């Protein structure tokens, strides 16, 4: 029996610490071959992944020795939580360790769109000096609509307040008397009202059955003409073809997408639009966030292997392996 298999590119002090105590196999590209992963995982007690490894019921069910999966990140859409719970396998994630980085990228997207920074950069590097072409808009006094007011949505709104933006939030799970709303001087509104009133809409939603394709043509048609749209959460929440149509028609002023409906995406028309900013799912990719995420996930995996409860379990903190067939 072996200890820990890491199927994505996860490195740092946390992994070094694990390596000093356990047998660790770091295979950064293994997520690309589900069959090879399933084959190798059979002998391991722990698996550590980011968001690219599909941790399916089939994978978990075939790994008789597995007692813990560490998810280096916060989104759980790639992990079959229900099956893991039934099988007695602990899933440990790293809530909040990368929230600041994600919020900072959302703000970066908003500023970049408002001032057309990437387009101006490309144009200027071609030898041009087109000042009139790049007349942007101020954020000051504008309204930011936060769709999904969890920790990252909250941190994004806090930062936008420093620019003098007014905040509207939509979150069906947030109570209107939640203290975060008064902290943000924000109004909790329905999605339609948010879309009608916001100059910038920023999505901070998990990928669930409820949020799949939530941002679609009906939503885009309700937004203010020329409004900006940012998604740094999950690609599945946006109907990409509808977004493309809204951008091409000029209904929306621009979009910033860090996440896509399939990753990596096929190159298409979104890639050709000058008012679209695309990044490769890097919201959590800062040195600081990665250090925190790696340390947190490795510590929890070590705890479970040592017979202790996980600190950040998604469901059960201790394994119950007898449920595995
Ligand atoms: C997350 O879910 O934490 C982020 O999307 C980053 C990641 O999955 O690697």
In short:
The chain is globular and about 65 Å long. The chain has 2 domains: 2-95 and 287-305, NAD(P)-binding Rossmann-like Domain (Rossmann fold, 3-Layer(aba) Sandwich); 99-278, Rossmann fold, CATH 3.40.50.720.
The tally of helices reads 12
In the CATH hierarchy, what is the architecture of the largest domain at level 2?
A: 3-Layer(aba) Sandwich
Strand order of the largest sheet: 8-7-6-9-10-11-12
Would you identify the regions where 5 or more consecutive residues have pLDDT less than 50? none
CATH superfamily (homologous) name of the largest domain = NAD(P)-binding Rossmann-like Domain
Gyration radius from CA atoms, angstroms: 21 Å
Number of domains: 2
Give the DSSP E fraction (strand runs of 2 or more residues).
15-25%
Report the bound ligands by name, code or SMILES. Answer: D-malate
What is the strand tally?
12
Q: Taking all residues together, what is the mean pLDDT?
A: 96
Distance between the termini: 18 Å
**Global morphology:** globular
Instruction: Write down the CATH topology of the largest domain.
Output: Rossmann fold
Q: List the helices and strands in order.
A: EHEHEHEHEHHEHEHEHEHEHEEH
Question: CATH class of the largest domain, please?
Answer: Alpha Beta
Category from helices, strands and their pairing: alpha/beta
Helix content: 25-40%
What does this structure look like?
By secondary structure, the chain is an alpha/beta fold. The chain folds into 2 domains: 2-95 and 287-305, 3-Layer(aba) Sandwich (Rossmann fold); 99-278, NAD(P)-binding Rossmann-like Domain (Rossmann fold), CATH 3.40.50. The protein has helices at residues 13-21, 34-41, 57-61, 81-87, 99-115, 117-125, 151-161, 179-183, 191-197, 217-222, 240-248, 287-305, and strands at 2-6, 24-26, 44-49, 68-71, 90-92, 143-147, 166-170, 187-188, 200-203, 227-231, 252-257, 276-278. A 7-stranded parallel sheet has the order 8-7-6-9-10-11-12, sandwiched between helices. A 5-stranded parallel sheet has the order 2-1-3-4-5. The protein starts with a strand and ends in a 20-residue tail after the last helix. The mean pLDDT is 96. Bound molecules: D-malate. Residues 50-51, 73-75, 98, 284 line the site of D-malate (MLT).
